[in-house]
Amino acid sequence: MNIKNVIIALVAVFSCTVCAQKSEYPIAAIAEELKDNANAVVRLEKTDINIASQRSMNVKTYRAITVLNQKGLSAVNGYENYDKTTTVKSIEAVVYDVFGNEIKRIKRKDFKDQSAAGEGTLFSDNRVLFLDYTPVNYPFTIVYQSEVATSNTAFIPKWYPVSEFYVSVEKSIFNISYPNNLGFKKKEINFSNFTIQKTTDTATQLSYSASNIPALKSEPYASQSLLFPRVMLGLEIFNLEGIDGNATSWIEFGKWWNSKILEGKNELSEETKNKMIALVGNEKDPIAKAKLIYNYVQQKVRYVSIQEGIGGWMPMSAKDVDRLGYGDCKALSNYTKALLEAVGVQSFYTKVYGDRYKIDIVSDFVSTQGNHIILAIPNGNNYTFLECTSQDDPFGYQANFTDDRDVLIIKPEGGEIVRTKNYEDNGNCQNSIGSYVLTEEGDLTGNIKMMSSGAQYGHKTNVEKLQPVEKEEHYKEYWDHINNLKIEKSSFSNDKEKIQFTENVQISAKNYGSVLNGKMMFVVNVYNLNSNSVKRVRNRKSPFEIQRGYLDTDEVNVALPKGYKIEFLPDNFELKGKFGECKTEVVKKEDGSLVYKRSLLVNKGVYSSAEYEDYRLFMEQISRNDNAKIILTKI
Amino acid sequence: MKPKFLLTVFTAFIVVCTSNAQDFRLGKVSLQELKEKVHPKDSSAVAAVLFEKAENKLVYNQENGFEIELVVRARIKIYKKGGYDLANKTLRYYLVNNSREKVSFSEVATYNLVDGKIEKTKLKSDGEFDEVINKYWGQKKIVMPNVKEGSVIEYEYVLHSPNIGNPRDWYFQSDIPVNYSEYINSIPEYFVYNTNLKGFISPKVTVEKHNKSLRIDSKVRVSEAGFSATRTNFSSEDIPYTETRTTYLVENMPAIKEESFVNNIRNYTTSLEQELSMTQFPNSMPKMYSTNWDAVVKTIYDYEDFGLELNKTGYFEEDLNQILKGITSVEEKIAVIFTFVKTKVKWNGYHGYSCEEGVRKAYKTGVGNVADINLMLTAMLRYSELNANPVLLSTRSNGISFFPNRTAFNYVISAVETDKGLILMDATEKYSVPNVLPLRDLNWSGRLIRKNGSSEDVDLMPKVNSKEFANVALDVDNHGVINGKVKLYHANHEALRFRQNHIVTNKDAYLESLENKNNNIEINDYVRENELDLAKPIIENYTFKDTKTAEIINNKIYLSPLIFFSLRENPFKQEVREYPVDFGYPIQEKYSITLKIPEGYEVESLPKAMTVDGGENIGMYKFVIGNNNGVIQIVSTSDIYSPIVTPEYYQVLKDFFQKSIEKQNEKIVLKKI
Fold first, then answer.
1. How far apart are CA A374 and CA A243, in angstroms?
2. Which listed residue, of A203, B275, B458, B576, carries a Cα 20 to 30 Å from B133's Cα?
């Protein structure tokens, strides 16, 4: 044994005795208020980031978490991703029992090593080392430690003192050090409701500390991004997968992205270019030309997600997409851009967060952001955005995925933040016209034509692609309040020019009206019941948001059964408020039939937590009125 | 060095079956196939398998002896964009050293119709990906180029696998139509496989025998049993043998569709399973693997990580003696040992009837797989002089196998034979009690193995009703507001399910979801009893206020007698049913309700009492109602007798539910006096 080994052995023995002596994180030491609503408690989380240079960053994590029950297990987050530019230098965990006695050590070799390609990703060279620990008893405490080194400095991990709902925090500490010549910057978000201290803030170092944060409950219509405190961090001089970068403004950032990531990717063969020129023919209008090209792309390619190295950022070349007929969002946007260029239409690669929930590119923090790429075509003073991964979307359709948010347009002359199209509440329509007939036994037959546009168009079109059995299932779920429902026939028309989807459905239902003691009772509103009740929430804490409003209108003819007279008709109903308005009426016609009219407008908006109960009651009144019944008496 | 042991195969030409004009050779895509716009028998199909031909062979390999070679050739038509997924093909392969599999793709191409001409685009290396998923499995993926609506794609793949015991299952049927699926199995006489065909559609099977020979050129090392190179043998001769060629053919298979309440759709998908049951090499004794259940069980029992582990006792004796002190009755012993194992060792989530850690280590570390835990349990029960044995089973996710084979099983539980019958236990599930097994175990029957190697079938499906019953007192005021008090019991499997789902749920979140589920009532004074007293039913007590159920129309109050407890929609919506409905376990739901009507009101009409008899294969629904001086009494009882209802009773089942639902939703009408 040489000297060096002796020292290592001594150190090992020494450090072992140290931890054997003291018991770590006994559960009795947790304050009561941190146990409320908590599935896990962060006892101490310490993140140390050291940026040594533009091409070198080291992240050390120490995380001691007490897991109170099985739902808290996910808070351990015992994993690290790695790839060609990121290595896991060390990773380990120690488990302690309720009293803080050590019960298990988990070494690197006990961590599972697995491909990190998620569902829907065809190939990725990103891998993950993760902890697969089966708890013997709850509660227990786990101390997880890791060190990761990377040459990527374009992304500095954000600091999240609170990372999940139902997890409280005893203490969370964050340190980052950096050379003073790389243009380090930060942005603090949602600090106002939390006690967070900035302990150091110098030219080369920044530190925060947060303590005693009770667990937050997840509440409907609220999002983590509005609630959780966090710090964004970045460098003006950085490295992305081996490529050096330098940007202090979006203009510079855009120029860099354009020249380093996109340049040279847009070449096409002469043959393909000529094909495009032939395709647009004599068309002069750039938008009309773009429509033709977009349609061509939708027929030619399919979406496939492949994440390899810089390929995670750099699009596959337009030539390759042309040859292979597939690609991811980057490749397909870049390809469409190249085809448009061939017919003289200018368009721009655009970075966006694609999500049903609206997330902005943070416009006052120049950095690599976004999780998706779309294409922007100048259209007058505005832009038309194309979703190039979709084989079905109408030209320019964005609702429910990239609408109403800040995005970054990459132009050769620089980047520019632009807001995407907002779908107005009263444009997100479903207009229905229909009728139904009741027999003396209460059996119903009817038909309805529903025309959906705006954001509602996007909710509906999928039904077109369903298999016959699924289609039937869909409508039986959609009208699940109608017992004995039979779908007799359904047909659709999808007008992609007007962006309107029309469903024509014929239904029947035995015993829709319940006949009892010479009376028949039935809910007059057959086709559009607002039954999705808004959950009651105890002590709501978070503000809530209705992200997209909508407008539904219905006009339905009701033919009453023979041999009955009307005993009771529901009153006309009108409700107006900040959340929207609802109006229904039942009109008697001369021929003895009825017309049921309904309109419901829900406004988008951000509301305070106190207003939530008002909203719940607003919707409850509507749903109660939607259940209004007609009573008929046998003559 | 040249291979010294040559396998000479006498002319075996593939006879191309040409019952129609289609050419089943790769590369021979026809104009007609490319022009086809929709599938002729299923116009909604997004894609279809035009043909798929598999050849499974045992081939000799100098280093490894016999290996499986599976060659698959396929042609697929893409009709719609929804079928684009078919243009990405993934094949998994096993990675572990001595049973490492090899996979290669070839002849991969996409065919399109361009200006009336066939255009072929070949797959290049940039469309092929190889990925290590974890330490056991890798996968190869191909992404076909140039795929559009109307494209035809083709590929061939070859799988070499040393795992001759279990050839891969072959699925003739898929979630898209399959026009032609053929599986040819060529097996030398030395090997005998058990085969099992699943599904509702039977393939056409033809068997041929061929004479072949193996030629040994010079001295070789051959083994006594098999060709796995162990001793030196000097010979140079042709060894004649017979090869059995079995062809399975199915044409025009419809797409298989998922249905609700199906145990596992794979049980009904037309497919072929095989397992090696016997080997007999020249001049050696036959070796049995699985010929009948007894042989299968014997083989498993003889595995070191099964039988040997089961016989170990030393590691727990001291502890067990301690906790069993003074305990004599069988019931108590069972209860104490079961609880002891559940608290001592936690399940790591892995299935299997073979121990992973070994019982000793699992006992020490407190973590183990299914076998570690339940074999330990069995050993302890035996040690305490109970007649305990392991029961092998296949979980619901693993599907059902009807023929004797080792891989039919993926799980083991424990059983004690008592004078009151068999008691089944699974100590991997912390909220389970004896004879209440977790749902994953409830899959037809298992196989009990005794010490002497004999075995028998054990019905796993619960015989005892699981129960949910409620005592409810309601008070309606003259605004139609209902105030109520509820005592709700969940017993047996319902208790297990409740504990699994709700014990660790945050109380507020649970109440909010309960309120929301129940017509947005407002719940107060919520108390839960017997949460962790597993032998007893879980009881929920609460009071509530319901402003939505009762409606006032024209000065009359209308309300349904079961208020929010009524079933509002029929769970069976399909018009026709293909596969059995699987409830998991028999269940009884009973609600006893007293309803006090407001001052100044009287009953105008009540729903009538009713009984719906669904027959012995389904169940019984009873609705009883009475009015006693302004207090209405209601008892609603629903019994589902059998955990499984076959499709021929589907319509009866649907009507049974429909009638009960209509009854539950009929209105009580109260009017002003």
1. 23
2. B275
Task: For chain A, say whether B516 makes contact (Cβ under 8 Å).
Answer: yes
Are residues B200 and B330 part of one domain? no
B516 and A39 within 8 Å at the Cβ level: the answer is no
Q: Where are any strands of DSSP class E within A73-204?
A: 79-82, 86-96, 102-106, 112-115, 121-124, 127-130, 140-150, 167-177, 184-189, 196-201
Q: Is residue B23 part of a domain?
A: no
Whose CA is closest to B90, among B37, B124, B139?
A: B139
Look at the block and give the residue holding tokens 């539980």.
B413
> If pLDDT is split at 50, 70 and 90, which confidence band does B487 have?
very high
Which CATH number belongs to the domain containing residue B190 in this structure?
2.60.40
Per-residue model confidence as pLDDT tens digits over B585-606: 999 999 999 999 999 999 999 9
Residue A312: both structure tokens together:
């995670």
**Taking Cα atoms as reference points, which of B242, B184, B215 lies closest to residue B13?**
B184
Contact A568 B553 (CB under 8 A): yes
CATH value at residue B394:
3.10.620.30
First to last CA, chain B: 107
CA distance B644 to B586: 9
The strand pair at A79-82 and A629-634 is best described as: unpaired
Euclidean distance between CA atoms B150 and B39, whole angstroms = 11
Does one domain contain both B476 and B445?
A: no
Contacts of residue B235, defined as CB under 8 A and 6 or more positions apart, other chains included, come to: B216, B219, B220
Of B44, B82, B520, the CB nearest to A620: B520
Least reliable range by pLDDT among A221-225, B138-142, B215-219, B226-230? B226-230
Q: pLDDT tens digit string along A267-312?
A: 999 999 999 999 999 999 999 999 999 999 999 999 998 776 566 7
Based on the domain organization, do B241 and B272 belong to the same domain?
yes
User: Cβ–Cβ contacts within 10 Å for residue A249, how many?
Assistant: 12
Say how far residue A231 (Cα) sits from the centre of its chain: 20
> In chain B, whose CA is at the least distance from the CA of A462?
B82
Angle at B347 between CA B345 and CA B353, to 5 degrees: 105
Contact B351, B374 (CB under 8 A): no
Provide the domain count of chain B: 3
Interface of A with B in 283-312 (CB under 8 A): 299-300, 302, 304, 306
Tell whether B554 lies on the interface with A, counting CB pairs under 8 A: yes
| H/E element, B412 | strand B411-418
Q: Which of residues 501-520 of A touch B (CB under 8 A)?
A: 511, 514, 516-517
A427 to chain B, any CB pair closer than 8 A? The answer is: no
Is B572 within a domain? yes
Taking CA–CA distances from B522, the nearest residue in chain A reads: A536
Whether B318 maps to a domain, the answer reads yes
Give the domain-ending residue among B287, B305, B322.
B287
Please check the confidence at residue B277 and state whether its pLDDT lies above 50.
yes
Rounded Cα distance, A340 and A291, in Å: 10
Nearest-CA distance from A300 to chain B in Å?
A: 6
Sign, CA torsion B328/B329/B334/B336: negative
Question: In this structure, is residue B664 part of a structural domain?
Answer: yes
Paired with B8 in beta bridges are B213
Distance CA B644, CA B400 (A): 14
Domains delineated in chain A: 26-227 (2.60.40.3140), 247-419 (3.10.620.30), 431-634 (2.60.120.1130)
In chain B, residues with a C-beta closer than 8 Å to the C-beta of A627 are: 551
Give the pLDDT of residue B501.
Answer: 92
Q: How far apart are CA A140 and CA A95, in angstroms?
A: 7
Q: Residue with structure tokens 């589902």?
A: B640
B532 shares its domain with B666: yes
